[in-house]
Protein backbone atom coordinates (compact mmCIF):
# COMPACT_ATOMS: atom_id res chain seq x y z
CA UNK A 1 0.00 0.00 0.00
CA UNK A 2 1.19 3.48 -0.86
CA UNK A 3 3.75 2.39 -3.43
CA UNK A 4 4.13 4.64 -6.47
CA UNK A 5 4.02 2.85 -9.82
CA UNK A 6 4.90 4.27 -13.24
CA UNK A 7 3.77 2.29 -16.30
CA UNK A 8 5.18 3.38 -19.65
CA UNK A 9 2.79 2.16 -22.35
CA UNK A 10 3.75 1.89 -26.03
CA UNK A 11 0.92 0.71 -28.28
CA UNK A 12 -1.23 2.66 -30.72
CA UNK A 13 -4.50 0.81 -30.07
CA UNK A 14 -6.19 0.98 -26.63
CA UNK A 15 -8.31 -2.09 -27.49
CA UNK A 16 -5.27 -4.21 -28.30
CA UNK A 17 -4.06 -7.14 -26.21
CA UNK A 18 -1.37 -4.84 -24.83
CA UNK A 19 -4.14 -2.44 -23.92
CA UNK A 20 -5.88 -5.21 -21.99
CA UNK A 21 -2.67 -6.02 -20.13
CA UNK A 22 -2.27 -2.36 -19.23
CA UNK A 23 -5.85 -2.11 -17.97
CA UNK A 24 -5.39 -5.16 -15.77
CA UNK A 25 -2.17 -3.77 -14.30
CA UNK A 26 -3.74 -0.41 -13.48
CA UNK A 27 -6.83 -1.99 -11.92
CA UNK A 28 -5.00 -4.63 -9.89
CA UNK A 29 -2.23 -2.37 -8.58
CA UNK A 30 -4.77 0.32 -7.70
CA UNK A 31 -6.75 -2.26 -5.72
CA UNK A 32 -3.56 -2.95 -3.77
CA UNK A 33 -3.42 0.70 -2.73
CA UNK A 34 -0.69 1.73 -5.16
CA UNK A 35 -0.61 5.13 -6.80
CA UNK A 36 -0.43 4.29 -10.51
CA UNK A 37 0.64 6.72 -13.23
CA UNK A 38 0.48 5.73 -16.91
CA UNK A 39 2.55 7.39 -19.61
CA UNK A 40 0.74 6.52 -22.86
CA UNK A 41 3.45 7.44 -25.34
CA UNK A 42 1.35 7.31 -28.51
CA UNK A 43 -1.45 9.31 -26.91
CA UNK A 44 1.16 11.87 -25.84
CA UNK A 45 2.53 11.98 -29.42
CA UNK A 46 5.98 11.42 -27.99
CA UNK A 47 7.97 11.21 -31.19
CA UNK A 48 10.68 13.06 -33.00
CA UNK A 49 13.01 15.62 -31.49
CA UNK A 50 13.15 17.75 -29.40
CA UNK A 51 11.35 16.01 -26.52
CA UNK A 52 7.65 16.77 -26.09
CA UNK A 53 6.55 18.81 -23.04
CA UNK A 54 4.59 15.89 -21.61
CA UNK A 55 7.86 14.28 -20.54
CA UNK A 56 8.05 16.97 -17.87
CA UNK A 57 5.20 15.49 -15.84
CA UNK A 58 6.99 12.14 -15.76
CA UNK A 59 10.21 13.70 -14.54
CA UNK A 60 8.37 15.59 -11.83
CA UNK A 61 6.96 12.30 -10.62
CA UNK A 62 10.33 10.55 -10.69
CA UNK A 63 12.36 13.27 -9.03
CA UNK A 64 11.74 16.22 -6.74
CA UNK A 65 14.02 18.15 -4.46
CA UNK A 66 15.45 21.44 -3.26
CA UNK A 67 17.96 21.62 -6.11
CA UNK A 68 15.18 22.31 -8.62
CA UNK A 69 15.99 25.78 -9.95
CA UNK A 70 13.51 25.99 -12.84
CA UNK A 71 9.83 26.54 -12.07
CA UNK A 72 7.06 24.44 -13.59
CA UNK A 73 5.87 27.18 -15.92
CA UNK A 74 9.25 27.34 -17.61
CA UNK A 75 9.78 23.61 -18.02
CA UNK A 76 7.66 23.26 -21.16
CA UNK A 77 9.69 25.89 -22.97
CA UNK A 78 12.89 24.15 -21.92
CA UNK A 79 11.52 20.90 -23.36
CA UNK A 80 10.63 22.57 -26.64
CA UNK A 81 14.14 23.95 -26.83
CA UNK A 82 15.58 20.47 -26.37
CA UNK A 83 17.24 21.41 -23.08
CA UNK A 84 15.61 18.78 -20.88
CA UNK A 85 18.73 16.56 -20.63
CA UNK A 86 20.71 19.57 -19.38
CA UNK A 87 18.16 20.28 -16.67
CA UNK A 88 18.16 16.78 -15.27
CA UNK A 89 21.85 17.09 -14.41
CA UNK A 90 20.95 19.35 -11.48
CA UNK A 91 18.47 16.79 -10.11
CA UNK A 92 20.83 13.89 -9.52
CA UNK A 93 20.87 14.34 -5.74
CA UNK A 94 17.10 14.60 -5.41
CA UNK A 95 15.18 11.62 -4.06
CA UNK A 96 13.37 9.24 -6.38
CA UNK A 97 9.61 9.19 -6.01
CA UNK A 98 8.58 5.89 -7.58
CA UNK A 99 8.98 2.32 -6.34
CA UNK A 100 8.17 0.36 -9.48
CA UNK A 101 8.75 1.12 -13.17
CA UNK A 102 6.97 -1.07 -15.71
CA UNK A 103 6.93 -0.98 -19.49
CA UNK A 104 4.08 -2.49 -21.53
CA UNK A 105 4.74 -2.95 -25.25
CA UNK A 106 4.80 -5.28 -28.27
CA UNK A 107 8.21 -6.64 -29.27
CA UNK A 108 9.33 -4.96 -32.52
CA UNK A 109 12.32 -6.32 -34.46
CA UNK A 110 13.81 -8.03 -31.38
CA UNK A 111 13.53 -4.82 -29.37
CA UNK A 112 11.15 -2.29 -27.88
CA UNK A 113 9.22 0.11 -30.17
CA UNK A 114 11.18 3.20 -31.21
CA UNK A 115 8.80 5.47 -29.31
CA UNK A 116 9.59 3.62 -26.07
CA UNK A 117 13.33 3.68 -26.76
CA UNK A 118 12.94 7.43 -27.31
CA UNK A 119 11.37 7.74 -23.86
CA UNK A 120 14.28 5.83 -22.36
CA UNK A 121 16.77 8.08 -24.16
CA UNK A 122 15.08 11.27 -23.00
CA UNK A 123 14.20 10.37 -19.42
CA UNK A 124 16.93 8.02 -18.21
CA UNK A 125 19.69 10.56 -18.78
CA UNK A 126 23.12 10.93 -17.22
CA UNK A 127 22.99 12.69 -13.88
CA UNK A 128 19.44 11.52 -13.33
CA UNK A 129 19.44 7.74 -13.80
CA UNK A 130 23.16 7.02 -13.83
CA UNK A 131 26.56 8.68 -13.77
CA UNK A 132 29.95 7.68 -15.10
CA UNK A 133 30.95 6.26 -11.74
CA UNK A 134 27.43 5.22 -10.70
CA UNK A 135 25.95 2.49 -12.85
CA UNK A 136 24.62 -1.06 -12.59
CA UNK A 137 24.36 -1.92 -8.86
CA UNK A 138 25.47 1.65 -8.10
CA UNK A 139 23.06 3.32 -10.52
CA UNK A 140 21.12 6.36 -9.33
CA UNK A 141 17.79 4.50 -9.48
CA UNK A 142 18.92 1.61 -7.29
CA UNK A 143 16.56 -0.12 -4.89
CA UNK A 144 13.63 0.42 -7.27
CA UNK A 145 11.91 -2.38 -9.17
CA UNK A 146 11.40 -2.72 -12.91
CA UNK A 147 9.52 -5.14 -15.11
CA UNK A 148 9.04 -5.51 -18.86
CA UNK A 149 5.65 -6.88 -19.90
CA UNK A 150 5.39 -7.47 -23.63
CA UNK A 151 3.83 -9.48 -26.42
CA UNK A 152 5.54 -11.22 -29.31
CA UNK A 153 4.56 -12.18 -32.82
CA UNK A 154 6.52 -15.42 -32.56
CA UNK A 155 5.68 -18.49 -30.51
CA UNK A 156 7.43 -19.80 -27.41
CA UNK A 157 9.18 -22.40 -29.57
CA UNK A 158 10.52 -19.74 -31.92
CA UNK A 159 12.11 -17.91 -28.99
CA UNK A 160 13.74 -20.98 -27.46
CA UNK A 161 17.43 -21.86 -27.66
CA UNK A 162 16.72 -24.26 -30.49
CA UNK A 163 14.26 -21.95 -32.23
CA UNK A 164 14.76 -19.65 -35.19
CA UNK A 165 14.73 -16.55 -32.95
CA UNK A 166 17.07 -17.92 -30.32
CA UNK A 167 16.53 -17.74 -26.56
CA UNK A 168 14.30 -14.79 -25.63
CA UNK A 169 16.84 -13.93 -22.93
CA UNK A 170 19.29 -12.90 -25.66
CA UNK A 171 16.75 -10.30 -26.76
CA UNK A 172 16.31 -9.09 -23.18
CA UNK A 173 20.03 -8.50 -22.58
CA UNK A 174 20.27 -4.95 -24.08
CA UNK A 175 16.87 -3.89 -22.71
CA UNK A 176 16.94 -5.27 -19.18
CA UNK A 177 20.67 -5.34 -18.52
CA UNK A 178 21.80 -2.48 -20.75
CA UNK A 179 19.11 -0.03 -19.60
CA UNK A 180 17.28 -1.04 -16.42
CA UNK A 181 20.15 -2.70 -14.57
CA UNK A 182 22.61 -0.08 -15.84
CA UNK A 183 20.52 2.60 -14.09
CA UNK A 184 20.51 0.59 -10.87
CA UNK A 185 16.97 -0.76 -11.06
CA UNK A 186 16.28 -4.24 -9.75
CA UNK A 187 14.84 -6.33 -12.57
CA UNK A 188 11.97 -8.76 -12.14
CA UNK A 189 11.42 -11.71 -14.47
CA UNK A 190 9.76 -10.35 -17.63
CA UNK A 191 6.12 -11.13 -18.31
CA UNK A 192 5.84 -12.41 -21.88
CA UNK A 193 2.68 -13.25 -23.82
CA UNK A 194 3.75 -15.23 -26.87
CA UNK A 195 1.87 -14.71 -30.13
CA UNK A 196 -1.52 -13.72 -28.64
CA UNK A 197 -2.96 -12.95 -32.07
CA UNK A 198 -2.36 -16.52 -33.20
CA UNK A 199 -4.01 -18.37 -30.31
CA UNK A 200 -7.61 -19.09 -29.38
CA UNK A 201 -9.85 -16.73 -27.43
CA UNK A 202 -9.66 -19.09 -24.47
CA UNK A 203 -5.88 -19.06 -24.55
CA UNK A 204 -5.85 -15.26 -24.59
CA UNK A 205 -8.15 -15.25 -21.57
CA UNK A 206 -5.72 -17.58 -19.82
CA UNK A 207 -2.86 -15.17 -20.59
CA UNK A 208 -4.78 -12.26 -19.11
CA UNK A 209 -5.72 -14.29 -16.05
CA UNK A 210 -2.08 -15.30 -15.52
CA UNK A 211 -1.06 -11.62 -15.58
CA UNK A 212 -3.74 -10.77 -13.02
CA UNK A 213 -2.58 -13.56 -10.72
CA UNK A 214 1.06 -12.56 -11.01
CA UNK A 215 0.29 -8.95 -10.08
CA UNK A 216 -1.38 -10.13 -6.87
CA UNK A 217 1.96 -11.43 -5.55
CA UNK A 218 4.27 -9.06 -7.44
CA UNK A 219 5.82 -7.46 -4.36
CA UNK A 220 6.89 -10.84 -3.02
CA UNK A 221 9.00 -11.68 -6.08
CA UNK A 222 12.79 -11.79 -6.00
CA UNK A 223 14.65 -9.91 -8.76
CA UNK A 224 16.77 -11.85 -11.25
CA UNK A 225 20.48 -11.92 -10.47
CA UNK A 226 21.26 -9.48 -13.33
CA UNK A 227 24.40 -11.36 -14.34
CA UNK A 228 25.48 -12.37 -17.86
CA UNK A 229 24.96 -15.98 -16.77
CA UNK A 230 21.20 -15.36 -16.36
CA UNK A 231 20.96 -14.30 -19.99
CA UNK A 232 23.45 -16.59 -21.66
CA UNK A 233 23.70 -19.72 -19.51
TrEMBL record:
Keywords: Cytoplasm, FAD, Flavoprotein, Metal-binding, Oxidoreductase, Phosphoprotein, Zinc
InterPro entries recorded: Flavodoxin_fold, Flavoprotein-like_sf, NAD(P)H_dehydrogenase_qn
Subcellular location: Cytoplasm
Cofactor: Zn(2+); FAD
Main localization of the protein described in the UniProt heading: cytoplasm
Ranges for domain Flavodoxin-like fold: 3-44, 104-215
Any one annotated GO CC term: cytosol
Keyword Lipid metabolism: no
Reactions listed under catalytic activity: 1-(beta-D-ribofuranosyl)-1,4-dihydronicotinamide + a quinone + H(+) = beta-nicotinamide D-riboside + a quinol
Keyword Zinc: yes
The EC number(s) this enzyme carries: 1.10.5.1
An example molecular function term from Gene Ontology annotations: dihydronicotinamide riboside quinone reductase activity
Pfam families named among the record's database cross-references: Flavodoxin_2
Lineage top rank: taxon: Eukaryota
Broad class of enzyme this protein falls into: oxidoreductase
PANTHER family for the chain: NAD P H OXIDOREDUCTASE-RELATED, RIBOSYLDIHYDRONICOTINAMIDE DEHYDROGENASE [QUINONE]
Assembly: Homodimer.
Family: Belongs to the NAD(P)H dehydrogenase (quinone) family.
Function (record text): The enzyme apparently serves as a quinone reductase in connection with conjugation reactions of hydroquinones involved in detoxification pathways as well as in biosynthetic processes such as the vitamin K-dependent gamma-carboxylation of glutamate residues in prothrombin synthesis.
Record-given protein name: Ribosyldihydronicotinamide dehydrogenase [quinone]
Species the sequence originates in: Smithornis capensis
Top-level taxonomy: Eukaryota, Metazoa, Chordata, Craniata, Vertebrata
Gene expressing this chain: Nqo2_0
